[in-house]
Amino acid sequence: MTSTTAASSPPAVMPLIGHYFPEILSLARRGLVWAVLYGAFARASRGGCLPASESVEPVCYNATLGPSPLTWFLMALVFVVALGSAAKATRTAVINRTLRIAATALWAVPLLAALLALASFLTASPDTLTHGSLGSVSVEITSE
């Protein structure tokens, strides 16, 4: 009698993603550099006084734009999702494409976030700034 229950296990093979460790490390470094650059350059300051009538004192404001934590969260999410997707891939072309798309997203997300935040901050009316309807803007209001 021959036994057919003996299972032949395949040899232990290193997953494809393991061969891409230097590329993943490079992706993490570039993502960190872009996160630091975003934190350094997504800042602005603006101030002025609102026109007032003779019976009311003028109201002055100083608005400061800072980086949004949501952008950093989105960058981390891109990195983690890319790693998960690349780890599940069975072809090297898929891994290369996934890492390339993630590398592009890691510079495009903070760049676009900074440009949009700066554009909306610099073009916002003083009323919008003093009522605090912009995301990561802190406003200090004083009366003279």
Features:
15% strand, three-stranded antiparallel sheet, 144 residues, alpha+beta
Structure notes:
Helix content is 54%, strand content 15%. The protein is of the alpha+beta class and 144 residues long. Strands 1-2-3 form a three-stranded antiparallel beta sheet. Strand 1 and strand 2 form a beta hairpin. The longest helix has 32 residues, at 92-123.
Low-confidence stretches: none
| Share in β-strands | 5-15%
Largest sheet: 3 strands, antiparallel
Apparent shape: rod-shaped
**Helix and strand sequence:** HEEHHHE
Number of distinct beta strands: 3
Radius of gyration, in Å, reads: 26 Å
Number of separate helices? 4
Helix percentage: 40-55%
Secondary structure class reads alpha+beta
Determine the mean pLDDT. Answer: 84
Distance between the termini: 101 Å
Query: How do the strands line up in the largest sheet?
Result: 1-2-3
Topology, pairings included?
Layout: H1 21-41, E1 44-50, E2 59-65, H2 69-88, H3 92-123, H4 126-130, E3 137-143
Helix pairs in contact: 1-2, 1-3, 2-3
Structure at a glance:
Helices cover 54% and strands 15% of the residues.
